[in-house]
Amino acid sequence: MKNLANIITSSRIIFAIAILYIKPYSTAFWICYFLGGLSDFLDGFVARTLNQQSAKGAKIDSIADFVFAVSISIIVLKYIFLPGWLWYSISLIFVIRIITYIVGFYKYRTFSSLHTYFNKTSGLLILIFPLLYVILKLDVAGAIVCFVSFVASIEELVITVKSSRLDRDCKGLFLREKR
Prior knowledge:
- By secondary structure, the chain is mainly alpha-helical.
- The protein is 76% helix and 0% strand.
- The radius of gyration is 16 Å and the shape is globular.
- The N and C termini lie far apart (34 Å).
């Protein structure tokens, strides 16, 4: 029980890797996909409830979020035809994220993904993208996910550039505590 939150978080990495090797859109794929997404919501709740919050746990959570998002992106890119504008949008967001991580690593000497509300919303939208794809079709679903992910990426870049210290639990650009 001592490390339950970190175990739940680590399971997201395992599920993310598993979906890359399981037949896409099979029952096993969806089970791993949704358990990976569920772990993202459970780990924080468990950490707070059991008083297991830690800098190490926050770092593992950021890495797990990144691995899961990359896995989902690989599946989408591999099995869904994307129009050019969507490729450009995804590429721009990816470049902004990489720049942010480079700046963060340079400033803080560690992986520095933030748990902002926009990043959490972006992660949720990426998780439910298959559902949005079915309900709203590709253009609308892609535009929504890309817009929120773009805003989240820009916000994280600005916070990373402006902050003198790493605060992974920063909730947003205008929601930060003054230090």
